[in-house]
Design brief:
Elements: H1 9-20, H2 23-35, H3 39-67, H4 71-78, H5 85-117, H6 126-138, H7 142-158, H8 162-189, H9 194-202, H10 211-224, H11 231-236, H12 245-273, H13 284-295, H14 299-332, H15 337-357, H16 372-399, H17 402-410, H18 419-427, H19 429-441
The structure holds phenylalanine (PHE).
Length: 446
């Protein structure tokens, strides 16, 4: 049987950018930036994206397209009978832990999308929005219901395969996402006091920067660019030989960063315009923003548009994570796509339900001082993704011969420009930076 693949350059770009651009850009990036000093955080994030993220994305693309396999199968075929497939296994574990909690937050976006459409939703006080959010996520039933709908949509796209599922829907949804975020930006920028919000995003205050901020910025680069889990590796396994991998990686990185900035511009000018504290953590988009929409020009339209934006961003990322599992089950265990998609979705949804309940009736700090949902987020982005990224960098940088990666990168490319630099970064700066950040993240140094 012929292996499914992307049919066009646009399709690859839309799908890979769709994976990268997600809740990470809008929900996570903006609250991390709010909590960690605005522009200074952004600049460190930017440096991590260029120096660490981009080379790892190119490495994942190289392994994926070269082997045309899932993350475990890829390492098995390149270095049989070695421990390297463990890197792929780590990716599978990360995929389970990210998508199970991501599905819950994806459900939140659908809930807010529906609620924000009603006229009365924009009339509450800031305290009431906080109560609405807490009551909702602590409820044992409704968040699970919304999670089920979100996971159902994710399933419905992935089960159709690459060309008629993932590619088709990414091509449809990504332009819409750009359009919505730009429209919201236009409204946000016309608000009085918008300048202060822009200064928060673009004028660095270095006094806020310490090792913790750096650790967060690097972790966010991994999360936002969908790295270290084998997502980009899996998508690249469906990329044709006529495409330039470095160019595609660069375009995906630029698009992802652009949307993070555009999301910041959509949110902070409005937040400052109403003198609201930007450091409100994960509740920023679900508690602070609804209050802002109530006072904003065209709030009745901007509100639902914003939650639609979040839902689309979440969906095109969720499908990329589910595909990692489906590719693994399909190729390694030889299950058909339908069976692989059903079983993965059911497992993810069950773990996600436990995560959802850990916000309410099962709330306890049994997981290293966190509830289960927060633990899944921290465990995957602070540990699985950077460790996965580390081994991917070491693999392409040191384990494989430079001729191997150079040759794969040359296919479809005009020249070898930049290959040496990428390889050098993968050999030196990338692993060194991950080690330092990792050790400081677990409190060994810094
Ligand atoms: N990049 C996605 C986001 O920013 C999340 C994600 C992480 C997707 C890891 C795939 C792999 O929301």
């Amino acid at each position: 049987m012929k292996r499914d693949s992307f049919s066009s350059r646009m399709g690859v770009l839309a799908a890979a950018a769709g994976s990268a651009i997600g809740l990470g850009n809008i929900w996570r990036f903006t609250y991390l930036m709010g909590d960690n000093g605005g522009a200074a955080f952004f600049l460190i994030y930017l440096a991590s994206v260029i120096l660490i993220g981009l080379p790892i994305m190119i490495a994942e693309f190289t392994i994926g397209r070269n082997t045309q396999k899932n993350p475990i199968g890829a390492f098995k075929s390149l270095v049989p009978k070695s421990a390297w497939p463990l890197t792929g296994w780590l990716g599978i574990i990360a995929a389970f832990s990210v998508l199970s909690f991501y599905g819950v937050v994806g459900g939140w976006t659908l809930y807010y999308l529906v609620r924000s459409v009603s006229q009365s939703f924009l009339q509450f006080s800031p305290d009431q929005y906080a109560t609405i959010f807490t009551n909702y996520i602590e409820n044992p039933l409704i968040p699970i219901l919304t999670q089920l709908i979100f996971m159902g949509l994710t399933f419905a796209i992935v089960v159709r395969g690459i060309q008629s599922g993932i590619e088709k829907y990414s091509k449809l949804l990504m332009p819409l996402l750009f359009l919505i975020v730009i429209l919201i930006d236009v409204v946000a920028l016309t608000m009085p006091g918008a300048g202060e919000g822009l200064a928060f995003i673009f004028k660095p205050d270095w006094s806020k920067v310490d090792m913790k901020v750096i650790v967060m910025a690097v972790g966010q680069a991994f999360f936002s660019l969908s790295l270290g889990m084998g997502t980009m590796l899996t998508y690249a396994s469906y990329i044709g030989k006529q495409q330039d991998l470095k160019k595609t990686a660069l375009q995906v990185t630029v698009a992802d960063t652009l949307v993070a900035v555009l999301a910041g511009v959509a949110i902070f000018p409005a937040v400052f315009s109403f003198n609201i504290d930007p450091t409100s953590g994960p509740g920023l988009v679900f508690i602070t923003l609804p209050a802002v929409f109530g006072k904003m020009p065209f709030g009745q339209i901007v509100g639902p548009a914003f939650f639609l934006l979040l839902a689309i961003a979440a969906l095109t990322s969720a499908i990329s994570i589910l595909e990692v599992l489906v590719a693994y089950f399909g190729e390694e265990l030889k299950w058909g796509r339908k069976k692989a998609t059903i079983i993965s979705t059911v497992l993810l949804t069950l773990i996600g339900m436990i995560a959802s309940l850990s916000n309410g009736i099962w709330n306890n700090d049994a997981f290293f001082g966190m509830n289960f949902m927060d633990f899944l987020g921290a465990f995957s982005s602070n540990y699985c993704l950077p460790i996965g990224g580390f081994f991917i960098a070491i693999f392409v940088g040191w384990r494989m011969k430079p001729e191997w990666s150079n040759q794969e990168l040359l296919i479809g490319a005009k020249n070898a420009r930049g290959n040496k630099l990428v390889l050098w970064l993968l050999r030196t700066l990338v692993p060194a930076a991950i080690i330092v950040v990792f050790l400081s993240g677990i409190g060994v140094i810094g």
